[in-house]
Structure formats: structure tokens, C-alpha cells
Amino acid sequence: MPAVRDVPPTRGCFVAFEGGDGAGKSTQSALLGAWLREGGREVVLTREPGGTPVGMAIRDVLLHGEHVAPRAEALLFAADRAHHVATVVRPALERGAVVLTDRYMDSSVAYQGVARSLAREDVRGLSLWATEGLLPDLTVVLDVTSGEGRTRRGHVHDRLEREDDGFHDRVRQGFLDLAAADPGRYLVLDATAPAQQIHAAVRERFGLLADEAAV
Ligand code: TYD
To answer: What number does the ligand 1 atom closest to the CA of 77 have?
Structure first.
């Protein structure tokens, strides 16, 4: 298995938005994307699962089908990710684009590793293998409690959203633990703050990242 960053670094910038269901990730990635485009950057807005046609088929099986065994679920999310990185994310980073993804490997660690109780290091290892070690330059965690997430999701429930509050509490703790273990790569924000306030904090952090890396 290649070590993280064995694959040559890319020229672009890779940002992941993570958090529980109903945290507002897609709103925030769209706001950051619009701001960067105004500044003249090429931006690729994408998501997991389902950022590619193959991924859409996998997404359907994962979210709208029958029961999937936990290890099969972990492998399907990793398969979606492998194809997404190989065909969308890496090519975009190699041409210098900013890639903003709505969910990435931390979702697998939090949902399958922590909440489904598969070993988190195994789940992370699977994603590192799938992506040849590609980690985001920055991960924004939009922190939401299980109760707030449920209220914000409304009544549309996919297979994972239907899990109980205990499951979503474990997901939340999974994200917070990942962020605490590597604070330099993470920005944790309260998802209940006004969207424009969250966006301002994301912009500020992205600016620091861009200064450091001259991306
Ligand atoms: P998503 O489309 O982001 O749903 P939402 O917009 O409601 O947040 O993700 C679909 C579901 O898939 C979500 O419940 C989280 C789950 N998921 C995992 O369990 N593991 C993963 O690796 C990923 C990427 C998502």
C-alpha cells in the first residue's frame, strides 16, 4: 500500500466538506466555489458518493436499495471513491484546479469505521489504498448534533439518514476525533451558525492555506 503522498503532489488544491446529514455541506461548498470562481480560479464542485456516472450507480445501491452488509457498504463507498479520485479529482488537481468535494474519506471513517463499528484504521486504510494516498489539503467539518441534523434534514430519509440518533452521535464524534488528531488539516465550525458567517470563516482559512502553499 503506498504511503500518504507517495503519489506526486498535485498543483491544485483539494478541500473536503464533512459533517453529519443536514449539516449544510453543499451550501458551503457552493459558496466557496462561487467566491473562488469570482477570483478567477478553476473550481470543480463534486461529491461522494456519486461524483461520476459509475458512482451514481453505486450511490443508488448504497442509499436507495435493500440492506447492505457493513463490510460491503465500506467497500462500495471505497469503490466510488477510487473511481472518483482517478477520473475526476486527480485530473482536476493536475491541471491546477481547486477541487471542492462534498464528503470524502472521513465520512467512511466516521460512518462505517466508528458508527458501524468496523475498525476505523481498516476503513481508513481501505480509502488510502483506493485513492493512492490522496488526502485533502483542508477538511472543513460542519459540526451538527444528531437532533439538529434530524430537524434540518426534514422528512427525506435515505438508508443512512434513517439510522437512529445514537448512530448519528457516533458519526459526529468520529469527525470531531479525526479533527482533534490533526488540527492543522481541519477547520471545525458550528453548523448552526448563519451560512454567511460560516462561509466567511471558510474563506479566511482557505486564504491562509493558499498563502502557505502558493496555490
Ligand atoms: P450525502 O449525499 O452527502 O447525503 P447528505 O446530503 O444527506 O449529507 O451522503 C449520503 C450518505 O452516505 C450520508 O448519509 C453519509 C453516507 N456516507 C457514508 O456512510 N460513507 C461514506 O464514505 C460517504 C462518502 C457517505
So the answer is: 22
The reply to whether CATH 3.40.50.620 applies to domain 4-214 is no
What are the pLDDT tens digits along the chain (215 aa)? 444 444 444 579 999 999 998 889 999 999 999 999 999 999 999 999 999 999 999 999 999 989 999 999 999 999 999 999 999 999 999 999 999 999 999 999 999 999 999 999 999 999 999 999 999 999 999 999 999 988 888 876 788 888 999 999 999 999 999 999 999 999 999 999 999 999 999 999 998 887 776 55
Query: For ligand 1, is residue 90 a contact (CB within 6 Å)?
Result: no
| Residue corresponding to grid cell 443508488 | 60
From the alpha carbon of 102, which atom of ligand 1 is closest? Answer: 3
How crowded is residue 47: how many other Cβ atoms within 10 Å of its Cβ?
A: 18
Ligand 1 atom at minimal distance to the Cα of residue 21: 8
* Cβ–ligand 1 contact at 118 (below 6 Å): no
Residues listed for the chain: 215
Angle separating helix axes 146-153 and 165-181, nearest 10 degrees: 120
Best residue for ligand 1 mutational test, from 28, 45, 81, 107 (most atoms within 8 Å of Cβ): 107
Q: Ligand 1 within 6 A of 18 CB? A: no
Instruction: Give CA–CA dist 41/109, Å, rounded.
Output: 31
